[in-house]
Amino acid sequence: MSEIGAGEIAGGAVLGGLTVGTFKYLPKALRPFKTVGAQREAAAQAATKTVSGDTIISQLESKAQTLSPTQKTSYARFLEAAKENYVGKEISVSDSLNILSEANKAFTAAGKVGKSATASFNKSLGDAIRKELAEKAPDVAKANKLFEKLYKAQGAGKFVARQAAPIAIGATLGKLLFGR
Fold first, then answer.
1. How many CA atoms lie within 13 A of 142 on its CB side?
2. Residues 132-147: tens digit of each pLDDT
3. Average pLDDT over residues 94-114
4. Which phi and psi (to 5°) does residue 5 adopt?
5. What is the rounded distance in angstroms from the CA atom of residue 31 to the CA atom of residue 39?
6. Is the pLDDT at 102 greater than 70, yes or no?
7. What is the DSSP-derived secondary structure letter of residue 5?
């Protein structure tokens, strides 16, 4: 039996108070989107139920009733195209996730360029799919909720980072100019 050196313990080497065993969790902590994505994909593959295209269309039609008159024409065109793709079809959970992802991207892009009817349609499509996933694949819906929290936390971190430099510069200038 060899002696345990000063930098080692029975569970592994020590580095800054952490054992080597601790480091196997760091990649997951440092890449939470990838980890949650893998969990969501596994849950989607395990799901046996399907999402009803007819239910999605009915939810999109009900949203059309609440739109402003200027948005209704464009929204109706998107709705007709969606009917061709979804009416009478059962969509797998994996395919639903792909549609949801594309709807989220389109919603973001449309919002950036000011296309409100496009944004409204894609937001409604995403909401309809999320609602169906909550009923048909609750594990996938839980992962989606976690993604939502991660994106919000990421946005808050960016906000803090953007505000930190001006605050630091302002504090430094205040000390230089006013001695405070």
1. 7
2. 989 998 888 888 788 7
3. 87
4. -70, 175
5. 13
6. yes
7. P
